[in-house]
Amino acid sequence: MQPVLAGGPSQRDEIQVTITRQDLERDYLRQVELREWSTAAQQARTTADDARGACDGIKDGKWGFHTERESRPWWQVDLGRQYLVESIVVYNRCDTVASRSARLQVLISPDGGQWTQVYQHDGSVFYGFTDGRPLRITLNKLPARFVRAQLPDTEYLHLDEVEVYAEENGEVRNVALYKAADQSSLSMWSRWHPEGAPHARCYPVQKTVERGLALAEELLQFASLDPEAGRIIGEEMEKLRQIAAEARSPEAADQNVTRELYLRACLVSRRIALLNPLLNFESLVFVKRKPPVFHHMSDQHYGWWCRPDGGLYILEGWKSEAPRLRCLTSSLPSGSVIRPDISYDGKRILFTYARYYPELHKHPNKLDKNNIPEDAFYHVYEVNVDGTELRRLTYGKFDDIDARYLPDGRIVFLSTRRGVATQVLPDVNQVTTAPQPDCYVRCGGGPERPVAIYTLHVMNGDGSNIRPISAFESFEWHPCVDFSGRILYARWDYVDRHNQPFMGLWSTLPDGTGVQAVYGNFTWNPLSVFEARPVPGSHKIVFTASAHHSITGGSLVLLDPRRGTDDEAPLTRLTPEVCFPESEGWPAHYYANPYPLSEKFFLVSWSDKPLADHGGQMDDAGPGLYLYDAFGNLHLIYQDPEIGCECPLPLAPRPRPPAVASESQALARDTATCVIADVYAGMPTVARAAVKKLRIVGLPVKTHPTMNYPELGLTHEDPGKFVLGTVPVEPDGSAYFRVPAGISVFFQALDERGMALRTMRSAVYFQPGQTASCIGCHESRQMAPPSKTIAALRKEPQPIQPGPVGSWPLDYNELVQPVLDRHCVRCHNPSGEGKNWDLSAGQSWETLVRYGKPSLADLVLEGYRRGRSLPGEGLAARAPLISLLVKGHYQVALQAEDWERLIIWMDLYGQKRGYFDDRQYQELVNLREQLRGVLVGMADAAP
């Protein structure tokens, strides 16, 4: 057991909190401003949502609407009736792309069907907001109900504001203001704009009454359990109906009257909400925390960015008007506390804490851990709920975060102590508290901002026996134990694809076996599936749809995995008024930390401050604690005007999931076996018997901290790679083979020429002694295993046949250049006949990746942007160089190994190399020797 820290609960740790009616009313007014009236940058759902932005009276030089790039894009306004239009004034977008509107056309119509062009701009660039010189078009009282602006060619159309002037009620005015508008298409830059004038906005009395009544109807189902509560709910429902009746009276036309009715309805709804039998706990655990100095999904969990004044708190009597607040961490120096967890018996709390050092975030060299105090890193702590026995569980200069109790008494958590090893086994001897190098994300960071990878680890309840259970090569986030004992978590999986969108939901068993995608591995929106928690009494999961370039926060979503594993179909947006951050815009308010009580009731944190990207500024006050329900009611529990309140948890015992037995075998030191039933499952367009082998490709971690450096290939954020080799595929599509444990790998299905027919875009790893199986290649997660004999299982598991020199470690100069030196350089050199295509050492890589149309570089970037591999679209099979050589190129006659070398290189994204430094190169050489027992043909493959 780790030593207990000095200090404990004292009288000064307890304060009385008063939540007044004025506090609640102030919060409800802020809610209506943001949840009902907000003009935040939310993604438009319809073309009309975006089009309203060009007739909303807001002129700021930005775009009021934004179409897709298309042929003849248009925007139009319906004036409501026919006017004699005197003039049209157009305010352009006032930045470097203002020239896109230089050939703007204007058309008018009496009915929206028959159009007459009345103006064509001369090609000069006009602005409006910045220079006070908008485009003014005189029409001399032409009759029109509809006015359209469009472009004559293929381009984006985006204008700031369009004003249409005509006489109305004896004066000439802008008759387009706040009128209905539409446009030809939506783009990723399209935004939602509110309807009507700001002064015409009213308080949503009817909507609030409907939400309250829906909540009451739901709770009346439990009236038999508490007849007195049922009686009170009935009385409150009558009050809501009376408020609705008053809202229909003539007096309600006064905005002050509707304001008071709205507030009354909110308070009645709150009284109903607090009668929910699911709220059968008297205390809440939560943390106070200021946002980090640098807010990014990765960096939010590094101690050097933390802010002061955070703490772990219990709110007792939280449903009363005067709850009591108790701090459990006042004995710790000022710092940051994040993401607590409560033991299954409700007696202990895990949390993560880092001490605040005022100038540490400015240090230009955080790589040197001598510059960073140990307690400036986040570490795992535990405390009893009465504040006694506060103890620290983890040590060392690593960030240890997101600790969660496992059913067997151990703890799962995230840690940067994974290290730089390519092979990571669940071995306590591999973990140390001594300073050691970190591995890093490929697409971000530098000495002033090292972005070290954190992955899943486990330890005993007293902090001993720390060991990794993940060999993944990139980030993992937010573990949570579901009701079956599995661990849900998010991971960032961007193997040979765009780095931004793929933070999907995964699950694993507590020993690191059984890793599988749950949702979002090929989903572009939302960007991050964070804070997943299983819903009691349901197979559904709630999560926070979060941004890439910000802290965790956004829109709350209910996921039904039975309806699919990607895209929108399995999702129900619980908070549709908040866009998915970054992919749909930047919301002016946001949710986080959902704790489900059922599919319809949640504890959450909600912030009335904007969610800023990593270049913006977050407000210290941040979120407060709330009750939220699926009907749309949001009721304040507690907030601190100086600091954010996050992660509300019921302080009560909870069911303990079953402890899952380990599938890993400690005696099998570094090997596992893998069974694939039928590679064609998931590849219906690939002819049966076309797949002959599987290529297994390893992924070493990035060891250099600087963003996109060194450049290994064409995307500038390529993963490290080395080819372990190939294994055979039987005629029925099955395969059974041995594979090294503890190494992140992906597979490629190869045809008879050794060319990839399909490539995994994510990674998998295996634990020692594990037997892993899958049905096919990219098959649906809903697919059942085939009830047939698997031919590969009639044999022993096959060893891996290594590839040629230069494939492990992957190195273009060792793999490809020898082929060019033998067959090509005599002509293709600076002074030879083929000097226009120089293939001599030092120049050949650049020559080959740019050859042909589409070139290998074109194909690589196409696949990178698409984010998934399509059956039959391997890179080597489509590369112009292969086509040239197959047709015949002078006297060049390649041997089988020559072909293999070229094909491997092209199928692996044409990288220059697959290692990040010389030390890693040597580690991979040593690993080949160490894994000799898993491989065959080592004599031929020795470097």
Automatic annotation (TrEMBL):
Sequence ranges assigned to domain F5/8 type C in this UniProt record: 17-167
Keyword Transcription regulation: no
PROSITE patterns, per database record: FA58C_3 (PS50022)
Keywords: Calcium, Disulfide bond, Lectin, Metal-binding
One Pfam assignment: PD40
GO biological process: regulation of cellular defense response
GO MF term list: fucose binding; metal ion binding
Job of this protein: Acts as a defensive agent. Recognizes blood group fucosylated oligosaccharides including A, B, H and Lewis B-type antigens. Does not recognize Lewis A antigen and has low affinity for monovalent haptens.
PANTHER family registered for this protein in UniProt: F5_8 TYPE C DOMAIN-CONTAINING PROTEIN, FTP DOMAIN-CONTAINING PROTEIN
Family affiliation: Belongs to the fucolectin family.
Known partners and oligomeric status: Homotrimer.
Name of the protein: F5/8 type C domain-containing protein
Organism: Thermogutta terrifontis
